[in-house]
């Protein structure tokens, strides 16, 4: 591979990142090569290592280096409650409130028919199996208050409501259209306590 090809390959690789167009990719590549070679090595190692080591938790589907994540293994947690969130970032937002002591299921996405994301892509079958393990009594739908998040919550509640589980949704108060990740902790804590 010639030098020009190595540079072009780096730019193309950077363009895989969400929101990064060709100009930004060039800027990042030039920055790393011109000003931060150690940073380039660190980034390269971290990416290769993460891509190799990180998998999905067998029980909640979040990212972990173990077969089952530390949260799922924590016996002090209330296994009768299962909170469904879209992303690990949303899970972190709920955790930071300190108001929730149950377990989680992380969809790693949301239903989005226009983008071709269907029930299979967000592991709904796995969620239903998890929710019907006999221990879970309440499923808390904590998907985002966006159109897609609401649609996802609706499909999950349709799938589970005939199965004897108590289904709740985070209370309003979390602004319509918002993603949990960006909502302040007090608001999320209230939405959890007031869920219905
Ligand atoms: Zn887990």
UniProtKB/TrEMBL annotation:
Gene source species: Rhodoferax lithotrophicus
Matching InterPro entries: DNA_Rcmb_RecR, Rcmb_RecR, Rcmb_RecR_Znf, TOPRIM_dom, TOPRIM_RecR
Keywords, sorted A to Z: DNA damage, DNA recombination, DNA repair, Metal-binding, Zinc, Zinc-finger
Keyword match DNA damage: yes
C4-type zinc finger span: 57-72
Family: Belongs to the RecR family.
Function comment: May play a role in DNA repair. It seems to be involved in an RecBC-independent recombinational process of DNA repair. It may act with RecF and RecO.
Toprim domain residues: 80-175
Taxonomic placement: Bacteria, Pseudomonadati, Pseudomonadota, Betaproteobacteria, Burkholderiales
Protein's UniProt name: Recombination protein RecR
Entries under HAMAP family matching the protein: RecR (MF_00017)
